[in-house]
Design brief:
This protein has 359 residues and is mainly α. It has one domain (9-354). Helix content is 72%, strand content 4%. Strands 1-2-3 form a 3-stranded antiparallel sheet, covered by helices on one side. The protein is globular, with a radius of gyration of 20 Å. The two termini are 19 Å apart.
Length: 359
């Protein structure tokens, strides 16, 4: 019993449980007037996700690193398959229907890429052949990223940028490469404009000027800020958010669930949510700082980069600080693929904690 308690990293568990409970509460609030029982489905995904979390932690991160290239290739195959026979929703072909279950391969591709990169970079020292290693790592990131862009899912593809940057930083790449990469990325942004879909261009233009199309592309951005602002300090009360209950904010049980929390629990509620995320990020960062295994450090760093970036972008687009990117709020928004993939990633972090030499 003492050994079992020692292996449980309570800050990680408590933050995950807290975020999952907040998610269930507000998925119910956002959808209780609808026929679909989203909250009951989310409760199932939370239960199943925590099973995955503990199973992954029990199997150990070394097993998944050892099979990382297999998972990586399988994730690429799924991304190709979803492009051929995937289900389309709101103009994006991102889901595979497996009987009654819809799977979003891009969620698992992010984790598979982190695993493969951590294994690859951790198996090489940067002094061996830094240019070749860097080229391979960038290619490993570029392939799934472009397949996801093609769906189109620019939001999920954006997460591959902080992922590779953090992994390369932890690996020890020379700063001049990071600076050069950042400059090339910024310089290449104007050339990407021609490859964007029309609705993606509108989202970017509306981000710069929300009043440009208030009844079209700018509608969601405007309504989301109204919903959060309407909550004031302590909110309108649970189940009493008028902006949400009257359906002014689209996709409020997935991408814009933060609006529900902001309107019904106010700024006080959003601070509680951010505190739970802060506890989660601190827990993962402590694992990164303490482990002496290079591959484990890279793996935990990649997981932190993806989850932190997704939270930052999701909340940022709610307030208008970021363009609308179609990203869920990890562990809170409705969605099985998102919750399970995040739980599996954090299960790897728990496994690294269990395998620590000193903490």
């Amino acid at each position: 019993m003492q050994r079992w308690a020692k292996d449980i990293y309570w800050p990680l568990i408590v933050s995950m449980l807290g975020l999952a409970c907040v998610g269930i509460l507000f998925v119910y609030s956002a959808t209780h007037y609808q026929v679909n029982q989203y909250a009951m489905k989310q409760l199932f995904w939370v239960f199943f996700g925590f099973m995955v979390f503990f199973i992954v932690a029990l199997m150990g991160y070394r097993f998944f690193l050892g099979t990382s290239y297999l998972f990586y290739v399988l994730s690429l195959i799924l991304l190709v398959v979803v492009d051929v026979i995937g289900h389309t929703h709101l103009g994006a072909q991102r889901w595979l229907h497996l009987g009654p279950v819809a799977v979003q391969p891009s969620e698992f591709a992010k984790l598979a890429t982190v695993l493969a990169l951590a294994n690859y970079l951790g198996s090489h020292h940067r002094w061996e052949n830094e240019n070749r290693i860097l080229s391979v790592a960038l290619l490993m990131t570029f392939i799934p990223g472009m397949l996801i862009v093609k769906q189109p899912d620019l939001g999920s593809a954006m997460l591959f940028v902080p992922m590779i940057l953090v992994l390369l930083f932890l690996w020890g790449i020379r700063y001049r490469y990071l600076i050069a990469g950042a400059l090339l990325t910024m310089g290449g942004v104007p050339f990407l404009w021609g490859f964007l879909k029309e609705y993606q261009k509108k989202r970017l233009l509306v981000f710069l000027n929300p009043g440009l199309d208030p009844l079209g592309a700018g509608y969601t951005a405007i309504q989301s800020r109204i919903a959060v602002g309407a909550g004031g300090m302590f909110g309108k009360g649970y189940l009493d958010g008028t902006q949400i209950q009257l359906d002014f904010v689209p996709e409020h049980h997935t991408d814009f669930i933060f609006c529900v929390i902001g309107e019904e629990w106010g700024y006080a509620g959003t601070i509680i949510l951010l505190a739970l995320y802060g506890l989660l990020f601190k827990a993962v960062f402590q694992v990164i700082s303490s482990t002496t295994d290079v591959k484990a450090k890279l793996l935990a760093g990649g997981v932190l980069a993806v989850i932190f970036s997704q939270v930052f972008i999701n909340i940022g687009m709610t307030f208008g600080f970021m363009p609308i990117a179609g990203l869920t709020l990890p562990l809170v928004s409705y969605g099985g693929s998102s919750f399970i993939a995040t739980a599996a990633a954090l299960g790897l972090v728990l496994s690294i904690y269990k395998g620590r030499s000193i903490f």
